[in-house]
Amino acid sequence: MNGPMYRTALRLPALHSALFRGVRAGFHDLYGDLEPAAALALLDRLELPADTEHLTELRHVLAAWHKNHYRSPDAWDQAVRSCP
Fold it and tell me: Where are the domains of the chain?
C-alpha cells in the first residue's frame, strides 16, 4: 500500500472513497492478504466522512491485526457487534 499508484491516488481526494472501498474489498476477498499496519496508515490519510459505512469496523479488524476475512471469519462480525 506504499506503491506509486497509492501515493498518486492519495493526492486526489476524489479517489479516497475508491481507495477505502478497495481496502475493504481486499479484507473480504478470498485471496486478500492485507498488511494491517499499512492498511491502517492508508486509512489514516484518507479524507472520508466520519460516518463512512464500515470504516469503524474495518479499522477495528485491522487494529486487531487481521489480514483477511477468511483467515479470521468471526472478526468482522465481532467488529460489527462492538462498533457503534
Answer: 4-82
